Amino acid sequence: MLLTIDLDSEVPIYQQIRDRVVEAIASGDLEAGSALPSTRQLGADLAINFHTVNKAYDLLRQQGIIRINRKSGAVVRRDRRSGPPEPGIAQEWEERLRTLLAEAVVQGIRPDEVLGRSSAVLETFASSEELPT
Amino acid sequence: MLLTIDLDSEVPIYQQIRDRVVEAIASGDLEAGSALPSTRQLGADLAINFHTVNKAYDLLRQQGIIRINRKSGAVVRRDRRSGPPEPGIAQEWEERLRTLLAEAVVQGIRPDEVLGRSSAVLETFASSEELPT
Amino acid sequence: MLLTIDLDSEVPIYQQIRDRVVEAIASGDLEAGSALPSTRQLGADLAINFHTVNKAYDLLRQQGIIRINRKSGAVVRRDRRSGPPEPGIAQEWEERLRTLLAEAVVQGIRPDEVLGRSSAVLETFASSEELPT
Amino acid sequence: MLLTIDLDSEVPIYQQIRDRVVEAIASGDLEAGSALPSTRQLGADLAINFHTVNKAYDLLRQQGIIRINRKSGAVVRRDRRSGPPEPGIAQEWEERLRTLLAEAVVQGIRPDEVLGRSSAVLETFASSEELPT
DNA sequence: GTGGTCTAGACCACG
DNA sequence: GTGGTCTAGACCACA
Q1: pTM for the complete prediction?
Q2: Does the beta-carbon distance from C98 to D82 stay under 8 Å?
Q3: Are residues C17 and C59 in the same domain?
């Protein structure tokens, strides 16, 4: 199973799919050129409607993360080696970071622990960087 | 104006209010015991329905961040000095962290820059720690 | 009726809606701030499913032409006074222009006539520019 | 290479082939009597299925732009010296022009720049008129 | 009452 | 066999 979703989550399913794909790319499980399952296939695997998968893929396409080809289906287009971020992206991202970090502080997670966990997560992403070489 | 919201954002207004309050607590602008504006007051200030403010406050109450009295209104209950997080919270938070960091990696933001920005944001929260009382 | 569509056209209905809205903005029938009909309303008027209208509006939103607000519905965001094009847009547009002009040449429409018709169309867009002032 | 296509474009491949052939005729690279590559040849060159090329050629034939013989293959039939357009064609073309110009206006491209670019493109088509023969 | 989400099924376009 | 389009109906989130 490429990815798992939570049907009971308040996060829309298509958003969960999108997030899981992004995480798979970040962790190196998917890299530029990797093919994603067809919408109907993934829909069947996850026991959801293929239209929902379609929406997730369409979102990824709009964000330049995958490309969709009638013949070969969805293919990863951008991975962590694809170069620096487009302008505006980083800024919008930092706003979300700020909200998430504020959340941590208020919930009592210590700043050093926040940074420690962040480092750990980033290393799980980076650790697979040596493998494909 | 205590906080600003974007009526055109895809983020629900009540969620924006909640996030801004959390950020205000994290940055020390609000601390345990501080009173929040009344729902009607804030609704008028933001030119939105006070039911929407109500929903935001209720969400904050459910998450243990504020408490609501019929008399004294909404009061901040938890701030960054309130001790360690509850067990489930930290775990759920880290999942969101993972998604956000994956996003950064895929968009091409370098890991060291991610940590740098995180540190910077955390310092804006911590710096005001000495100031109050 | 704000706009008309052709159900038999090979152009997707949602694309037609999008194009008609863009034309209405260009001709001044709609300007920044104008409200569009609700998706269900327009769907009923055009005798099509509201999901199709939804897709058209979503496309317009992605392209920054309208904004969508849960309360007030879809509102025009960008009109001909909204300033210069974003980089990349003009280039992509010129490619489409090149294809369209090639078509005209091959079909035997004379270059001077092409320019004449273009000017005429542009004037119908510009002519309403004095009115709202 | 006579023409290039983008496999990832949202524009169907057969449409891209058609458009490129039309542009080649407009620019004088192809003129009435010129032979097009065989469908299998072009399919091999572009690394696509020859059925797709077939579809593009068939479309061009339906539009009176090329003729297809079993013996001599596809031959250009109409170029910019072939006389005035058929009545319905010009009208349908102008509708597409109107949509494209509206797009430019809304995106903020100034009318004079639209006409300037149009003139420039038309000149690249006309300039080669003296060259052949 | 507004848009958003999900499901579902049919048909078409493309390669 | 792939994705794209359209329709349709139900339910929910939001204001």
Answers
A1: 0.89
A2: no
A3: yes
